[in-house]
Specification:
The protein is mainly β and 119 residues long. The chain is 0% helix and 53% strand. It starts with a strand and ends with a strand.
């Protein structure tokens, strides 16, 4: 069974940086498009970024484009979300997500990691 375990969340001041990591296990990592979603209090879960199986193709939400970078290390079964120039509105629980290549629905979710940006 595929498992996703996030790490790296925490409290940071506005303008600061955080690096989130998601460790994948229990399956073949390169069969999956990997991504990140987030959910702020009182809001629906929203897409942040995703990365193709090779890492060669990435997509970003408009709200984070230019400030956040997604990457993956297929040798380590890990996907990274580097977040810079953080804003208070980036405060949310961040979830790692795995979609089978060629599909649109998230198949597996991580448990989430809290990111809090203070003003």
């Amino acid at each position: 069974q595929v498992q996703l375990v996030e790490s790296g969340g925490g409290l940071v001041q506005a303008g600061g940086s955080l690096r989130l990591a998601c460790k994948f296990s229990g399956g073949t990592f390169t069969m999956y498009t990997m991504g990140w979603f987030r959910q702020a209090p009182g809001k629906e879960r929203e897409f942040v970024a995703d990365c193709s199986w090779s890492g060669g193709s990435t997509r970003y939400a408009d709200s984070v484009n230019g400030r956040i970078t997604i990457s993956r290390d297929n040798a380590k079964n890990t996907v990274i979300l580097q977040m810079n120039s953080l804003k208070p509105e980036d405060t949310a629980v961040y979830y790692c997500a795995a979609k089978i290549r060629g599909t649109t629905e998230v198949r597996y979710w991580g448990q989430g990691t809290q990111v809090t940006v203070s003003s």
